[in-house]
Specification:
The protein has helices spanning 2-20, 26-41, 81-103, 151-154, 159-175, 215-221, and strands at residues 45-48, 63-68, 72-80, 107-114, 135-143, 148-150, 178-180, 192-195, 201-203. By secondary structure, the chain is of the alpha+beta class. The chain folds into 2 domains: 1-41, no CATH class; 45-221, no CATH class. Strands 1, 2, 3, 4, 5, 6, 7, 8 and 9 form a 9-stranded mixed sheet that branches. Helix 3 links the parallel strand 3 (72-80) and strand 4. The radius of gyration is 21 Å and the shape is globular.
Length: 242
């Protein structure tokens, strides 16, 4: 009986260990819970938002709809929890100090044009990072002194707003995968695309005025705005509505 009891106890310990490794699904669930806990600890206003996509290519790992993070979002954005937490950290630790330094004001809210969207990359068969909730299109920022910094109107206009936007994009290049700006192509005339995908490209002009050569490949296969239509059975996009 002692042997049986010891074996049963050992099996129980092994079962818990396997669950912790995720073989029984527990590991992934706990990882998801940890991400939600992180957002709460950082005072991010969000709610879980399950995606009912008919295509497995358009599902999001632990989706959340964010309304207010380091700054409020206009409109709310639907992203994978991990990317939402990472982007919130970028806004708090990089964008906000940069605005104070370059513009002498804090950021009240960020205007974004797109988060989750079930569609292909431009000119390619692969899905966009938007389809996995791993991308966001930043259009501009509302400041505490009433000014608005617009990617569309300020990117090429010179002055402090342009300097802020260029620094913002350059810093994003160092922390994320693909960053596409109005320098990249006409599809990005009004926003900065930031994603956590498999490519690593900084889509803005370098000090000598040239664009990185790898940008040509990325804009041909993984641009985000003039994207090819989604699969025929899929027509899902986030509008920021509840």
């Amino acid at each position: 009986m002692l042997v049986r009891g010891g074996s049963a106890a050992l099996l129980l310990v092994v079962a818990f260990a396997l669950a912790g490794c995720g073989l029984f699904g527990g590991g992934k669930e706990r990882a998801g819970d940890a991400c939600l806990d992180q957002l709460e600890s950082e005072h991010v206003a969000f709610k879980p938002a399950p995606i009912h996509a008919s295509s497995s290519a358009c599902t999001i790992d632990n989706p959340v709809r964010v309304t207010d993070a380091a700054m409020s979002w206009r409109p709310a954005g639907l992203l994978a929890c991990g990317f939402a937490a990472r982007f919130d950290q970028f806004l708090a630790k990089t964008a906000e100090p940069l605005a104070k330094r370059r513009l002498g004001a804090s950021i009240v809210s960020m205007r974004q044009l797109g988060t989750y969207s079930c569609r292909h990359m431009v000119g390619g068969k692969h899905m966009s990072e938007h389809a996995r909730g791993l991308a966001i299109d930043v259009a501009g920022f509302f400041l505490s002194d009433g000014r608005y910094v617009s990617v569309e109107t300020d990117w090429h206009e010179g002055g402090r707003k342009e300097a802020f936007l260029h620094d913002f994009a350059r810093d994003a290049c160092s922390k994320f995968g693909v960053v596409l700006t109005p320098d990249a192509n006409s599809a990005h005339f009004n926003h900065i695309h930031i994603d956590a995908g498999r490519y690593k490209v900084c889509g803005m002009r370098r000090a000598d005025g040239t664009l990185p050569p790898e940008l040509a490949h990325v804009t041909a296969e993984s641009g985000d705005s003039a994207a090819a239509p989604p699969p025929a059975h899929e027509n899902i996009a986030d509008t920021g509505a509840e």
